[in-house]
Amino acid sequence: MSLDLALLLAQDGIANGAIYVLVALGIVLVFLVTRIIFVPFGDLVAYGALTLAAIQAGERPGTIWLVLMLAALAFLVEAVSLLGRGAAHRLPRAALVWLALPALPALVAWALVGRALPDAAQWALTVALILPLGPLLYRIAFRPIADAPVLVLLIVSVVLHFAISGMALVFFGPEGARPRPLINAMFEIGDMVVSAQTLLMLACSALAAAGLWLFFERSLTGRALRATAVNRVGARLMGIRPGVSGGTAFMLASALAVLSGLLIGPVTTLSYDSGFVIGLKSFVGAIIGGLVSYPGAALGALFVGLLESFTAFYDSSFKEVVVFAILVPVLVLRSLVTAKPADDEEEEL
User: Fold this and answer.
1) Nearest to 259 by CA among 17, 83, 19, 12
2) Which helix (H) or strand (E) holds 194?
3) Left, alpha or beta for 10 (phi > 0: left; psi -120 to 50: alpha)?
4) How confident is the model over 140-153, as a mean pLDDT?
5) In principle, which of 133, 205, 253, 349 could form an S-S bond with 21, CB 3.0–4.6 Å?
């Protein structure tokens, strides 16, 4: 393999890795706060890209109906919970938080889509539609069972993925879509030609990884969010509300998902089920990074992109096999590193 060819493959791998970085960061974010492996994260990425493509085509995206349906269900779940606790006086606030606020961008989108809107307004409308999805899904599916074992949360997450992707098939159809890029420009770096969209993806990935690390390691609010996952009872005793922490984590995850969709959509065609594969590969990157470190997840996702690119050069039919097979030695190595020696365990007993 020549050096020029290796550089081209590395460029392609870094571009693919940049796609996985933001998704891996979102998966780590949700897991650190709620212990939930959020399988539908990739589906939210696909919803972001498909929603923007529909708005740019002058069509009303099916995301409007999804938001309205989830808002009604979330309010119903919250109302039943409040009435069961004898807190009926809090119903107006619940209607504002879980029904009115999520439904507002959906109604605005219904009124504006089809008109001549500037690109910035289309992006803002897409963000406003996708942002409530995470907290709504958390309130409906995860918050009632927040204290359940991780395996139960994972099963619910998988079921939720199939439900969301099935609705995406109904809303957007089986064909893929590709929105217009945010920036139309090409740059020459030596002998390589790099698109501005790829550079934007890399910059956003680096900023997101650094920002999340600083937020959770250096800020009091970030540490409070992490404390919720470590010990929910202890967090309550310290004045931290686990429900609010979970909703905040899912809100941040929705923001990362829609940002990923806006950046990824113009680079690769996405369909209703594309998010699942992207989410799985990003999860592999997050596992390589330890599933607890944002910089580690970013480096792991970039490694997955490079591995996929070089494997596809030799045999494209094995690229998924190699990417997912790399999990086996990684997990074995981590188990050996974290396992305590038998003598140490006997001494502790």
Assistant:
1) 19
2) strand 192-195
3) alpha
4) 88
5) 205
Look at the chain and count its residues. 349
Contact in structure between 178 and 269 (CB atoms under 8 Å)? yes
Question: Measuring CA to CA, which residue among 199, 155, 212 is closest to residue 28?
Answer: 212
Average pLDDT over residues 54-63: 89
What's the one-letter identity of residue 152? V
Closest CA to 311 of 296, 301, 326: 326
Question: What are the tokens at 31?
Answer: 């897991």
Q: Are 140 and 75 in contact (CB under 8 A)?
A: no
Q: How far apart are CA 50 and CA 268, in angstroms?
A: 12
pLDDT digits (tens, 9 = 90+) for 132-143: 999 999 999 998
- What residue ranges do the domains of the chain occupy? 3-348
Q: Give the CA angle between residues 212, 31, 127 to the nearest 5°.
A: 60
Distance CA 276, CA 268 (A): 14
Top-tier CATH class for 3-348:
mainly alpha
CA terminus-to-terminus distance, the chain: 56
Residues 6+ apart with CB under 8 A from 331: 287
Q: How many CB atoms lie within 10 A of CB 226?
A: 17
> What is the pLDDT confidence band of residue 157, given thresholds at 50, 70 and 90?
very high
Instruction: Residue 299: name the closest of 12, 6, 20 by CA.
Output: 20
> For residues 248 and 223, what is the distance between their CA atoms, to the nearest angstrom?
13
Furthest-apart CA atoms within the chain: distance in Å: 72
Q: Which amino acid is at 255?
A: A
Q: Which amino acid is at 344?
A: D
Alpha helices in 35-130 (DSSP H): 41-56, 63-84, 91-95, 101-112, 119-130
